[in-house]
């Protein structure tokens, strides 16, 4: 029983670590972007972020909204992932962020003029 609790805790920490890697990789890429985020570029960002995770290899799938992820130790273990929702979410977050920056810039200009 004790071993399984430790295994569960380790698995949870590993999952959190992967999530942090993905979050920071995507945040870094979005912070460098100075234009609209196309679906193609969003998928490319996801691919680059996924390839930072140890033990995984991600490649573009046959369809524009698909990514294939495989384990490096056993390439037969492969998943076809539909990333359309993730692409749409990245694009929405980027758009909202751009609007927020524009509003903040407008506020600063009004404050400076007052």
Overview of the molecule:
The protein is α+β, with helices and mostly antiparallel strands and about 110 residues long. The chain is built from 3 helices and 3 strands. The chain has helices spanning about 1-30, 40-50, 85-114; strands spanning about 55-60, 65-70, 80. Strands 1-2-3 form a 3-stranded antiparallel β-sheet. Strand 2 (about 65-70) and strand 3 form a beta hairpin. Helix 1 (about 1-30) crosses helix 2 and helix 2 packs across helix 3 (about 85-114). The radius of gyration is 19 Å and the shape is flat. The model has no long low-confidence stretch (mean pLDDT about 85).
What can be said about this structure in brief?
The chain has 114 residues and is α+β, with helices and mostly antiparallel strands. The chain has three helices and three strands; from the N terminus they run ααβββα.
Outline the fold blueprint.
Blueprint lengths: L1 H31 L6 H12 L5 E5 L5 E6 L6 E5 L1 H30 L1
Antiparallel strand pairs: 1-2, 2-3
Q: What low-confidence regions span 5 or more consecutive residues with pLDDT below 50?
A: none
Strand order within the widest sheet? 1-2-3
- Using only CA atoms, what is the Rg? 19 Å
Please work out how many helical segments DSSP would assign: 3
Key structural traits:
114 residues, alpha+beta, three-stranded antiparallel sheet, 3 helices, 14% strand, flat
